[in-house]
Amino acid sequence: MNGFEKRAQLIKEKIMKTTLDMLRTSEPKRIRISDISKTAHVSQVTIYNYFGSKEALLREVFIHYVDKIIRDFEEYMNGNHSLKEKIEHIILLEKETYKELPPRLIKDLLIEDHELSRYIEDQYKEKSIPLMIRIIEEGKKSGEIADNVTVEGVLAFIQLFMNQYEALLEMAAQSGDLDKFMEDMVHMFFYGISGKP
């Protein structure tokens, strides 16, 4: 990469970082190219030259964000962690993601951009699900997951949990102790309400 390409890459990264920072506090509809331009200290023309439109910029920022989450997820899952630690990581990953970007913002982005929605769905099917299946199968082989529990059953249980994650986070916030609430959820995920057998 020559000097011009490096400089161009740095400018593009600065625009994307500025946009991601703005997404943490503003709805996508309220963010304007002029605001991004002013905050990133680049011209509006530069932003249009790199991304073409605000929608394309938002899409690229979110894809970059999701790709990093997936890389980090794969790295953790391939690490030397127990099955319990890996499943706990899956459950608590949503909490960390929602701290970064509010759930309503993510929903808005996916509803408004079908291409982005398809990309996220493809990543989930092609990378996340196969990795989770492998982890569950390893857990069954090691005896950490009961023989009579199917891979499909564990995946369904995780999915049910994730589908209600926004509501769980609201309850956790109302409880006054988010971390303790989430620890309880993880404990019940593994051992039910009766405690560890």
TrEMBL record:
It comes from the Bacteria. Residues 9-69 form the HTH tetR-type domain. Keywords: DNA-binding. Pfam families: TetR_N (PF00440). Residues 32-51 bind DNA. PROSITE patterns: HTH_TETR_2. This is TetR/AcrR family transcriptional regulator. It comes from Paenibacillus mendelii.
